Amino acid sequence: MFFPSRIFCCLGIRTYQLRADVLSRSIRLSASATMAFRHKNTRRIEGLDSNVWVEFTKVAADPSIVNLGQGLPDISPPTYVKEELAKAAAVDRLNQYTRGFGHPSLVKALAQVYERVCGRKIDPLTDILVTVGAYGSLFSTIQALIEEGDEVIIIEPFYDCYEPMVRMAGAKPVFIPLRCKNDGNSASSADWVLDPAELANKFNSKTKAIILNTPHNPIGKVFTREELQIIADLCIKHDTLCISDEVYEWLVYKGNKHIKIATLPGMWERTITIGSAGKTYSVTGWKLGWSIGPQNLIKHLQVVHQNTLYTCPTPLQEALAQALWIDYRRMDDPGCYFHSLSQELESKRDRMARLLQEAGLKPVVPDGGYFMIVDVSTLNVDLSDVDEKQPYDYKFVKWMITSKKLSAIPLSAFFGPETKKKFEKYIRFCFIKKDSTLDAAEVILKNWNKQTA
Amino acid sequence: LSLPLQAKMSRPVQARRLEGIDKNIWVEFVKLAATYSKVNLGQGFPDFPPPDFLKEALERALSREKYMLHQYTRVFGHPPLVKILAQLFGKLLGRDLDPLTNVMVTVGAYQALFCCFQAFIDEGDEVIIIEPFFDCYQPMVKMAGGTPVFVPLRPKPSKDRKLMSSADWQLDPAELASKFSKRTKAIVLNSPNNPLGKVFSRGELELIAELCVKHDVLCISDEVYEWLVYDGKEHVRIASLQGMWDRTVIIGSAGKTFSATGWKVGWTVGPDQLLQHVRTVHQNSVYHCATIAQEAVGQGFQRELELYGKPESYFVQLPKELQQKRDWLVQSLDAVGMKPIIPEGTYFLVADISEFKSDVPDVPNSEEPYDYRFAKWMVKNKGIAAIPLSAFYCEAHKNNYNHFVRFCFAKEEATLKAANDILQKWKQEKTSP
User: Residues in domain Aminotransferase class I/classII large (chain B) (predicted)?
Assistant: First the structure.
């Protein structure tokens, strides 16, 4: 053993003797060891073990690969954000537990920012919960409000965690696809729309909630007021909840406006709005998110939170609070990071679109977010000899990683089981990348046809 | 819009899994401490800072920006951290551990516990919980649809010493054995134990281990206080006992190890056949843990592994310092007539406050256990925050041990001195008319 043996000082009185019959005990133990190990997974996680990210982030971890796959920035977060973290960590008491439902200075800052945005009073203690990333907010919301017997409407394509989270809560996901208006000839994310009649059909007495994601990952669609009104009308008519994932709320490009469905009449009372520090400040590794809503809903999320992880890290919350104050004070300024980041990203978006077009592809230019999807059929890459029983786009991305040193994410990961096959030719690129990364991608795309696989 | 607007959702909104788990003692007692306490010996966190080397590790990480430290890291644990955890626990357990399959990082030990219950407890499963218990075990078992089955540690007063030790609180072997049924899925072990400070002996662990093996039961082993062990006692890891590695998930905490509870970095260590399911829960609930905190904790462990067993090791210094503080508080409480139970480990101790009952008269048929009322009275009137022991018992047993409160002694000397002053004054007020 590693450490030297010690003389043990027993303070207590032994109430029993170690059994002397060691031999018979060891026989009993070895018999038990041959018993079939019955400890399998619980029913709630049955079938939820695979995960597209775990698979693809592993494959793309090689630094020689130009990584446009997973949605994480390789641009630096703003300096003041990093500085605030250094400042916070230097304060002794900020290295210990803070308030479970959210660090006081952070929930106050969030309340101020969102009061401004929503035009309504938000109580920092009862209307907000701070979670481990927006992911944690989605989980807390679903665990708090969704259960067996419920149906939850999910709009396809969807950020992949919605489906397993709904299933883990014992509920049934009901899918409805965004459909391309122009018969598959799409130049913009705005071309992808819901069919109102089809949507209305998905609502019934079992529908507990609909999950909305705007700006949308992966397409980049920014739902218009009219589109949101249709959803809102149905929520009110059927008395359902709305779980609104708005992590990309600040990343909206010229000509578009991010509208919060919770601000539509009748919706505040039935909506949980989810936000993300990672996406707001390009610090995905901080894993801080928040849920905002009426007290009678948030209180249930708080119960989940106090029974799952209790508190989020203190210094990160303090730093985030300070950063929010800095930007809150200049919210009308173009220099505010909430605005300057989307400006920076718009030019990257345009560049990415150009690169793909020059390679003969037709990207779907997003109105928001930092992803772009593209149909790769025109590249005619024949992968019929690849044995794996995976959709075409999974095979394509893996092939592209190994032979072109460029990574993306297969779009069929974002669809339910019945629609997966229809989108096998789409892949998703992430463009929140520094110029040198986009330069490297440009080289690969320009030389695509020059190399034979 | 022609439909009447609903002020709220008109049907019950919350999921049934939240039934009976909405109350939480900390929400109430943390608020009381914040409002009234002059000396907070309640919630378990140090009021001294983390060690310099840990703060420096964070500063270095922030200034150097080696990797993309502000972006997502590996879902199941930042590679440098899981690597060092595998090395350290491999040595401690005498086993070769794979950092990728035998270790998973969580948001504090709290989230590790949650993942374990969600991974292994289905509706109808029974989980044995030893009382007194860290309060979250019960609601977590319930949230997973399981049935908690309680078995108490019982105090055996020793006649030859004035003060009890946490070692005097023991399981009755026959009683423990009777709690195992064919529905028993797991037992939760917490050693060193919060709130008593008991450090289960090898013999006691062997008893538990035999029952686990005999009944094919899992062991969720909460060892967050593993380094806080006094008087030369050994913290024995149940996973190192025969037949136990394959059925145990060990849980640890950087918050407790490095006096940095606000960083919320914890971990699970165990066989792949169990951790694979813990990973599934993690990837569907929290997904990643904060990168920078993991990077700094990894460096902290690197330093400790290099200094292992040496006097400068934090794992040697911290228990040494805390043992002194323990003895100080024990003396303090004993001098005023509160009867502390000397803890073998953790940074908590429990004291019998029966002598002070006259200050807080009993109220017959009160809903609240006596010690809750006492603790609330004490923080409001004397400014000392402590936690009632019955908070660590199930509803049915709350009145069994209702004249004890738990004190946290991971506090600066000045804090403990201030506590002593208040206690002395209180005693004087009681003795003089």
Answer: 38-419
Distance of CA A161 to CAs A137, A142, B279, Å?
12, 11, 14
Best residue in A45, A241, A337 for a mutation probing chain B (most B CBs within 10 Å): A45
In this predicted model, which residue has the larger pLDDT, A185 or A115?
Answer: A115
Contact residues on chain B for A34, CB-CB shorter than 8 A: none
What percentage of chain A has pLDDT greater than the value 90? 77
Interface touch A33/B264, C-beta < 8 Å: no
| A228-237, B7-16, B84-93: the lowest-pLDDT one | B7-16
| Range of weakest confidence among A63-72, A79-88, A307-316, B207-216 | A63-72
CB-based contact A405:A65 (threshold 8 Å): yes
B166 to chain A: nearest residue by CA? A12
Q: Give the integer Cα–Cα distance in Å for A287 and A290.
A: 10
Q: What is the share, in percent, of chain B residues with pLDDT greater than 70?
A: 96
CA A392-A396-A401 angle, 5° bins:
155
Chain B closest-CA separation from residue A263 CA (Å): 14
Give the distance from residue B200's alpha carbon to the nearest chain A alpha carbon, in angstroms.
Answer: 10
Q: Are B186 and B221 in contact (CB under 8 A)?
A: no
Q: Give the ipTM of the model, two decimals please.
A: 0.95
Chain B residues whose beta carbon lies within 8 Å of the beta carbon of residue A315 = 262-263
Decide: A371 and A217 in contact? Cβ < 8 Å. yes
Q: What is the CA radius of gyration of chain A?
A: 25
pLDDT at A28 over 80: no
The nearest alpha carbon in chain B to A70 belongs to B72
Tens digit of pLDDT for each residue in A266-281?
Answer: 999 999 999 999 999 9
> Tens digits of per-residue pLDDT, B279-308?
999 999 999 999 999 999 999 999 999 999
Q: Which chain A positions have a beta carbon within 8 Å of B233's beta carbon?
A: 8-9
Domains and CATH numbers, chain B: 16-50+314-431 (3.90.1150.10), 52-307 (3.40.640.10)
Cα distances (Å, whole numbers) of residue A114 to A77, A123, A213:
22, 10, 18
Cα separation, B343 vs B196, in Å, equals 6
Q: Do A6 and B234 count as a contact with CB atoms less than 8 A apart?
A: yes
Selecting from B121, B287, B342 the residue whose C-beta is nearest the C-beta of A133 gives B287
In angstroms, the CA B143 to CA A147 distance is 12
Give chain B positions within 8 Å (CB) of A7.
232
Q: How close, in Å, is residue A453 to chain B by CA atoms?
A: 31
Q: CA-CA distances (angstroms) from residue B425 to A66, A418, B413?
A: 70, 74, 18
Using alpha carbons, select from A352, A362, A371, A338 the residue that is nearest to residue A438.
Answer: A352
Mean pLDDT calculated for residue range A101-126: 97
Nearest by CB: A313 against B21, B185, B290: B290
Are B412 and B48 in contact, with CB atoms under 8 Å apart?
A: yes
Which residues of chain A make contact with B134, given a CB cutoff of 8 A? none
User: Where are the extended beta strands (E) located within B172-322?
Assistant: 184-190, 218-222, 248-253, 266-269
Tokens 């705007």, residue located: A214
Residue A37: pLDDT band (50, 70, 90) is low
Token pair 């006691």 in the structure block, residue: B204
DSSP state of A17: P
Q: Read off the tokens for A205.
A: 């007495």
Contact check, Cβ <8 Å, B108/A309:
yes
Residue A235 to residues A106, A209, A264, A267, B3: CA-CA distances in angstroms? Answer: 31, 8, 11, 8, 11
The rounded Cα A18 to chain-centroid distance in angstroms is: 53
What torsion do the CA atoms of B48, B54, B55, B60 make, to the nearest 10 degrees? Answer: 180
